[in-house]
Amino acid sequence: MKLVIASDHAGFALKEEMRAILAAAGHEVVDLGAYKVEAEDDYPDYAVKVGEAILAGVAARGILICGSGVGVCVAANKIPGIRAGICHDTYSAHQGVEHDDMNVLVLGARIIGSALAPELAHAFLGAKFQVQEPRFERRFKKVLAIEAKYQCGEGSRSKA
């Protein structure tokens, strides 16, 4: 499978490991950065790179990595059409695709180790959305309706 991958400085070492492991497993991995550790880089920039690449059709799925995973997950989910899920277990990694059509796996480099990360990625990449299940399709359509209802224009800001 072709996928995009990116991380900030906190996820850089795990991204490099994952890129090599996934390529060795036969996946085509497009690395969107970071290309070196820069403590001043910003995780939202990498979430945007992965989201835009998926929306542009570069790949159907992506992997994002930061320190906890939370930052890139929040940022990626602001992009309409991106369904990012932070996963620390293999069940969530495949179930998120099967039930919710998750297209971005988010990993927290400071939360999981390099032994678990490949298992999560393989579970994510091996899963398929179970569109034949009417309940999953119904729920997915509701998620898309929520996204459409609350989609903001460029530069819009929450009043919270």
Please provide a written account of the structure.
This protein is of the alpha/beta class and 160 residues long. The chain has one domain (2-150): Ribose 5-phosphate Isomerase B, Chain: A. Helices cover 45% and strands 15% of the residues. The protein contains six helices and five strands, in the order βαβαβαβαβαα. It has helices at 12-24, 43-55, 70-76, 90-100, 116-126, 134-150, and strands at 2-7, 28-31, 61-66, 84-86, 104-108. It has a five-stranded parallel β-sheet with strand order 2-1-3-5-4, sandwiched between helices. Strand 4, helix 4 (90-100) and strand 5 (104-108) form a beta-alpha-beta unit. Helix 2 packs across helix 3. The longest helix has 17 residues, at 134-150. The N and C termini lie far apart (40 Å).
The CATH C-level name is Alpha Beta
Per DSSP E runs of 2 or more residues, the count of β-strands stands at 5
CATH superfamily assignment?
Sugar-phosphate isomerase, RpiB/LacA/LacB
Helix-strand sequence: EHEHEHEHEHH
Report the C-alpha radius of gyration, rounded: 15 Å
Q: Could you name the ranges where pLDDT drops below 50 across 5 or more consecutive residues?
A: 155-160
Counting copies of identical and different chains, the oligomeric state is single chain
**How many individual helices?**
6
**Biggest β-sheet strands, sense, barrel:** 5 strands, parallel
**What's the CATH architecture?**
3-Layer(aba) Sandwich
- CATH topological fold name: Ribose 5-phosphate Isomerase B, Chain: A
Number of separate domains: 1
Overall residue-averaged pLDDT value: 93
